[in-house]
Amino acid sequence: MSILIRGGTVVNADRAYRADVLCADGLIVAVGDHLAAPAKTRVIDAGGQYVMPGGIDPHTHMQLPFMGTVATDDFFTGTVAGLAGGTTSIMDFVIPAPRQPLLDAYHTWREWAHKSASDYTFHVAVTWWDDSVGRDMATLVGQHGVNSFKHFMAYKNAIMADDEILVKSFTRCVELGALPTVHAENGELVFMLQQALLAKGITGPAAHPLSRPPVVEGEAAQRAIAIAKVLETPIYIVHVSCAESLGAIRRARAGGQRVYGEALAGHLLIDDSVYRNPDFDFAAGHVMSPPFRSQEHQTALWHGLQSGDLQTTATDHCTFCEAQKAAGKGDFTKIPNGCGGVEERMAVLWDAGVGSGRLTPSEFVAVTSANAAKIFNMYPRKGILAAGSDADIVVWDPHGTRTMSAKTQFSKSGFNVFEGRTVRGVPTHTVAAGKLVFERGQILVEPGAGRYIERPAFNPSRL
Ligand code: URQ
Ligand code: ZN
Ligand code: ZN
Predict the structure, then answer these.
(1) Position in ligand 1 atom list of the atom nearest CA 95
(2) pLDDT of residue 459
(3) Which structural domain range is residue 101 located in?
């Protein structure tokens, strides 16, 4: 069945204009004025609403095995939550255990993701190194459409990549035409600070941000950027949370280096006062890394988005319920790190970004969809409403309001870091791969509707 979205204002990253959108067989057939509706077409009245490319969340962790447990939202519940919020594609992470062949881990995650409700793709993490890792990276790029490799500079004694791994893996990325990405925190300093806090008997969630101050992130970002500069590779810094790492990115970009930065909706809107709440469940529910920061860092991140020094927004959706977070009672280092947001991202950023005048609707599309599609080589298949592109579309009511709450969310986590936040601007319809999957609060999709999206390598310098 075809779908005609009629009477709305189409917003792409380059411009906003009055147009209808006709979809058939999973693709956008036409974008134009007064389009006719072929027989058997579902017509959606978008009068007074915006019609935008479906969101791309470049950073999620559905059903991630982590810190002795498994994230509560799996690939179905997590992607359903995303669709309900207007996000039609997620970029998740294959994270091999040290010494686990990358290809083994990749096939495991592919199996888990079969149940996805929306399209998905994977960054693959390099958590250890020997020559076989370099060979698996080539197979992943050449045969499985992976063009980005993740490196955790934090999480010592677990998945942390030291400088040797960074240098070897980034070098391999250059050879393969792949983009290295990093979680930039100095894992050695975090570990030392964690031990020092515990030794002083400071064991509650309030210690979490004390063990990961902004300088620890700024140092790692600067180091990763320097390694990328010497090796002549672009680099993407995930969840930039503070002025220090943003400054490292800004200086590098001002010097002509190709550095990309990602901001999380949570880091843009939530401050570190959450950790001083005396309720363990509330404070622990906000434990993620890097931690939420004081308000001057949020201001810096918004300036980074407005200036173009940060290009994408994400959520790092990695949810744990109260019982899982309780593992850290008495020892904050055992609180599973991660928060949600995949459902709320677009609405909270529209409300705080477009609603405040910080972002235009087109800039909103850029940072919630188009830029991620371009950086990770999915554009114009994704990230734009144009003939021939995937029919991934969100119809947006700029006057609609919603109060975010764990009571009404689709996520299974039982916690919502945006709890009680009322936003103006909400999705009314989501179309994914040409099918109406969300309509005014109702999810209309089955497990398995999502597709694995292959992403071609960039021009490899040498194979
Ligand atoms: O570090 C990450 O991105 C993963 C493990 C999710 N957890 C988190 O605290 N950000
Ligand atoms: Zn991370
Ligand atoms: Zn993450």
Answers:
(1) 5
(2) 80
(3) 54-380
